[in-house]
Amino acid sequence: MTFEYDESIPEKLIGDPLKLSQVLINLIGNSVKFTQNGDVTIRVNKLNSTKGKVNLHVEIEDTGVGISKKKQKSIFETFNQGSLQINRKFGGSGLGLSIVKNLLELMNSRINLESVLGQGSKFWFDISFSISEETFGDTGLSNKAYNIDYKSLENVSILVVEDNKINQMITKKILEKHKIVCKVADNGLDAIKMVHENNFKLILMDIHMPGISGIETTQRIREFDKQLPIIALTAVTIDENLDEFYKAGFNEIIPKPFKPEDFFEKISNTLKASKTEIS
After folding, report:
1. How does 92-119 read in b/e, with b if 16+ C-beta sit within 10 Å?
2. 156 three-class SS
3. How far apart are CA 118 and CA 62, in angstroms?
4. How far is residue 183's CA from residue 254's CA, in Å, rounded to a whole number?
5. What's the rounded Cα separation, in Å, for the pair 275 and 279?
6. Is residue 128 packed enough to be buried (19+ CB in 10 Å), middle (13-18) or exposed (0-12)?
7. H or E element in which residue 231 lies
8. CA proximity to 103, closest of 11, 205, 233, 235
9. Lowest mean pLDDT among 45-54, 82-91, 209-218
10. What is the CA angle 13-18-23, rounded to 5?
11. What's the distance, CA 95 to chain centroid?
12. CA separation for the pair 117, 220 (Å, rounded)
């Protein structure tokens, strides 16, 4: 993987970091997933800038399996993936690219695709940001609005159930930054086995995974462990389906993308609630 970044881009821009990070995580993760042997290149170039604004061109290019002309027409539709065989081989729900399309539209941009079957794919978009003259310090990102006892989270053992390697890495890094002990399961069946063999204090469960879903995995864990707190991590809009998650045995839901403060507050509150119930 290589990263090419235009050094003439201003250091501080004003935009939506959560939406942009979710776009990049999905696009880069997609390229990594479908490039078993080859290269993935991320390029960020400045197209032009005016007073107070800058226009950027972002590309994610890979030398992976590529996408046929026919599939390129529907690749950004919800729950669409190249084929059932590819879905079984590489995993994932196919939601990522539809999320990318929707998020970019919310930021007044659009996703573009160039691909040759068997040779690779290039996803790109142009996006505009305002230029900030301010210097942001840590004081602006304090946890004053959040009730998080990070000390109580130290050495707590958490299992992350997630098939996306990039999401695994990011979640693990966020947790370990606060001295949380973190183990990862790639799928639901491995998660069930690990719960039997370890004494986890909490599970972070992705919903859409190859094999059995996060909902089914949670239901199976609840057959032998009613007390272990399980939090759903999902990028799907779930406002109308909250009951389904709670009925399956989840204690809490964290929508993706999430702010780290929201993330830790829900983990902290869920752990506190579980201790109260046990005592």
Report:
1. bbbbbbbbbbebbeebebebeeebeeee
2. coil
3. 11
4. 19
5. 6
6. middle
7. strand 230-234
8. 235
9. 82-91
10. 95
11. 11
12. 40
Position 255 scores a pLDDT of: 81
More confident residue, 214 or 143: 214
What does the block give as tokens for 9?
């881009």
Q: Is the pTM of this model over 0.90?
A: no
Closest among 65, 12, 8, 13 to 36, alpha carbons compared: 65
Which residue(s) pair with 115 in the sheet?
Answer: 121
Strands 157-161 and 181-185: parallel
**Average per-residue pLDDT in the chain?**
84
d(CA 6, CA 278): 54
CA R_g for the chain: 20
Domains in the chain with CATH codes:
2-131 (3.30.565.10), 144-278 (3.40.50.2300)
Residue 66 CA to its chain's centroid (Å): 23
Task: Give the sign of the dihedral formed by CA 211, CA 119, CA 41, CA 95.
Answer: negative
Residue 143 pLDDT > 60, yes or no? no
Q: Listing from the earlier edge strand, what are the strands of the sheet with 157-161? A: 181-185, 157-161, 202-206, 230-234, 252-255
Asked if 191 and 167 count as a contact pair (C-beta separation under 8 A), the reply is no
Encode pLDDT of 260-273 as tens digits.
888 999 999 999 99
CA–CA distances in Å: residue 205 to residues 65, 126, 131 = 29, 33, 37
